[in-house]
């Protein structure tokens, strides 16, 4: 299942740019399967994938600098269309006999949104307006374009924004068609795929789902499969896929640590009721809370929960006995991030759980390892998972334990759950659900004075947090409408006991983190 056979494939060769995954996602959104490979991938491997097109990504280097990543010259002799983006464009120029130099101040160096004029006779820009905004970020300039190429776009600052050699089917753009700031950028990629590479659009989730279910059935045979279900999107979709493929041979262990949001445990259980699988829900709230009693230090909480999780899972594993396959919900961004060197990002958090030592299995199955998050969600829909599960926002493994500041008690958890549910309800009612990537309530351990009716109160302060982010490594606080914040505040103070003050967190990450602990 690692390599998708039977689909046309485009290869994205990674030169270390920040938008590389985005390029691959866009290509797949256009209905064409693609994979991201390091630029140094041996030619034989590239040839082995029989790509219909190759895309060179951007990157932080200057092509003329010593040691800058280069393209294998043999790539240009494959007869396969190539699109170079930003660094990739300069690389095309540099490799094929043109000249790339540092741009002079004020002239051809460009950052940000730039009005660009296109030659719509070029296949890349066919059918698009002759002028549009593009997103630029380059400090180098193609001083001389290679023989066989012509210029196909320019801006006021830079005469050489795009090049094309239509005979050899090589195209280069200095801007980033993959980012939303570039008008019609996706259409340019689509033009490359469909008009230049001859794509037929054979990458659909419906087909992928059928093919993967069949492949899993064949691989697993009559084997026994174990999956640790967290209730998050990835593990839920992986579970649904396996449930569809092997039904009763699958055991899902869902450890309910009592630190989930309101109704979440029941929702997860209900979502899997339609399959004939062994669904083991371990209600371990008392156990977890017992171990957390008196603990206030955030990292200590995380550690305790992580350890307890493994212990519970091991106990369940022992009851189940020998299994053949253990399923993990690894997705493609994790694969790219851990395997591609240059653009590698170190994840700061791992999911609670890890791999218990005592569970015996022959092999790990990662059925989502070639899918982006949007595709995982689409697959979940294909498999009939409810929308609230498929669109669930990220939720930390230690759950509400790191959103109750200080000691975690059943009383505080109950307060937080109600407040958080109101926040989510109002956000949904205001149509702001997808305007944020993560949002939640935090119960602080600060109490302050208030007045309710004629009496003085001395109760908790609740904090609301909402962020927008693409990678969760940096984040901005969401500019929620005041009316929404007002409704949430009024409802929480009126409907949830022991909260008399609501604040909204207006710090970005960095310097703050997304979670409070
Ligand atoms: P921070 O707070 O570090 O969070 O800005 C970044 C993202 O990671 C999630 N998060 C965790 N996820 N175990 C997890 O599985 C954890 O211990 C953990 N701590 C934070 C957080 O919700 C956000 O999406």
| Shape category | globular
C-alpha termini separation: 39 Å
Which range best describes the helical content: under 10%, 10-25%, 25-40%, 40-55%, 55-70% or over 70%? Answer: 25-40%
Sketch the major β-sheet. Answer: 9 strands, mixed
CATH class term of the largest domain: Alpha Beta
CATH superfamily of the largest domain: Class I glutamine amidotransferase (GATase) domain
Bound molecules: xanthosine-5'-monophosphate
List keywords for this structure.
517 residues; alpha/beta; Rossmann fold; GMP Synthetase, Chain A, domain 3; 3 domains; 5-stranded parallel sheet; 20 strands; binds xanthosine-5'-monophosphate
Task: Tell me what you see in this structure.
There is one protein chain. With 517 residues, this protein is α/β, with parallel strands linked by helices. The chain folds into three domains: 9-196, Class I glutamine amidotransferase (GATase) domain (Rossmann fold), CATH 3.40.50.880; 205-390, Rossmann fold (3-Layer(aba) Sandwich); 403-504, GMP Synthetase, Chain A, domain 3. The chain is 31% helix and 23% strand. It is built from 14 helices and 20 strands. It has helices at residues 20-29, 43-48, 87-95, 185-196, 205-220, 233-246, 264-271, 285-292, 298-320, 332-339, 373-382, 387-390, 410-429, 482-495, and strands at residues 9-14, 33-38, 53-56, 82-85, 99-102, 110-118, 131-138, 140-144, 150-155, 162-165, 170-173, 225-229, 250-256, 278-283, 325-327, 363-365, 438-452, 455-468, 476-477, 499-504. The strands form four sheets. It has a nine-stranded mixed sheet, with helices on both faces. A five-stranded parallel sheet has the order 14-13-12-15-16, sandwiched between helices. Helix 5 (205-220) crosses helix 6 (233-246), helix 5 (205-220) packs across helix 11 (373-382) and helix 8 runs antiparallel to helix 9. The longest helix has 23 residues, at 298-320. The two termini are 39 Å apart. Mean pLDDT is 92; it is low at 341-353. Residues 302, 348-349, 351-352, 394, 396-398, 438, 472, 509, 513-515 line the site of xanthosine-5'-monophosphate.
């Amino acid at each position: 299942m690692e390599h998708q056979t039977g689909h046309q494939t485009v290869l994205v060769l990674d030169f270390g740019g920040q938008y590389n995954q985005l390029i691959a996602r866009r290509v797949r959104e256009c209905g064409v399967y693609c994979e991201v490979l390091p630029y140094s991938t041996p030619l034989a491997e590239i040839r082995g994938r029989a790509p219909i097109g190759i895309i060179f990504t951007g990157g932080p280097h200057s092509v003329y600098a010593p040691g800058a990543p280069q393209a294998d010259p043999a790539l240009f002799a494959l007869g396969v269309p190539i699109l170079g983006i930003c660094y990739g464009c300069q690389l095309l120029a540099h490799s094929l006999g043109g000249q790339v130099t540092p741009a002079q101040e004020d002239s051809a160096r460009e950052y940000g949104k730039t009005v660009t004029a296109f030659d719509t006779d070029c296949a890349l820009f066919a059918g698009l307006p002759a002028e549009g905004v593009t997103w630029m970020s380059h400090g180098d300039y193609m001083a001389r374009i290679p023989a066989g190429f012509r210029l196909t776009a320019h801006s006021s600052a830079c005469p050489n924004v795009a090049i094309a050699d239509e005979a050899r089917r090589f195209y280069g753009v200095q801007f980033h068609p993959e980012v939303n700031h570039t008008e019609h950028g996706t259409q340019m990629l689509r033009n490359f795929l469909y008009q230049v590479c001859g794509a037929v659009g054979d990458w659909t989730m419906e087909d992928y789902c059928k093919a993967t279910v069949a492949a899993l059935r064949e691989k697993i045979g009559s084997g026994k499969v174990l999956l640790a279900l967290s209730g998050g999107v990835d593990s839920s979709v992986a579970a649904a896929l396996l449930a569809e493929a092997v039904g009763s041979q699958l055991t899902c262990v869902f450890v309910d640590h009592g630190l989930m949001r309101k109704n979440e445990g029941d929702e997860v259980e209900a979502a899997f009721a339609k399959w004939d699988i062994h669904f083991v829900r371990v209600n371990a709230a008392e156990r977890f809370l017992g171990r957390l009693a008196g603990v206030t230090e955030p990292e200590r909480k995380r550690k305790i929960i992580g350890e307890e999780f493994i212990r519970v899972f091991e106990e369940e594993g022992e009851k189940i006995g020998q299994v053949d396959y253990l399923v993990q919900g690894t997705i493609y961004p994790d694969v790219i991030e851990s395997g591609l060197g240059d653009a590698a990002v170190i994840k700061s958090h791992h999911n609670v759980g890890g791999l218990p030592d005592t569970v015996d299995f022959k092999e790990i199955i990662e059925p989502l390892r070639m899918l982006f998050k949007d595709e995982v969600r689409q697959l979940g829909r294909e498999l009939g998972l409810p929308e609230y599960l498929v669109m669930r926002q990220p939720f930390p493994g230690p759950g509400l334990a790191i959103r109750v500041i200080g000691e975690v008690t059943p009383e505080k958890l109950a307060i937080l759950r109600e407040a958080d549910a109101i926040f989510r309800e109002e956000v949904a009612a205001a149509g702001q659900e997808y305007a944020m990537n993560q949002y939640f309530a935090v119960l602080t351990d600060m109490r302050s004075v208030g007045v309710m009716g004629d009496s003085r109160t001395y109760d908790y302060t609740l904090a609301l947090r909402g962020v927008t982010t693409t990678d969760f490594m940096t984040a901005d606080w969401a500019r929620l409408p005041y009316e929404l914040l007002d409704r949430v505040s009024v409802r929480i103070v009126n409907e949830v006991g022991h909260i008399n003050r609501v604040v909204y967190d207006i710090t970005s990450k960095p310097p703050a983190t997304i979670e409070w602990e």
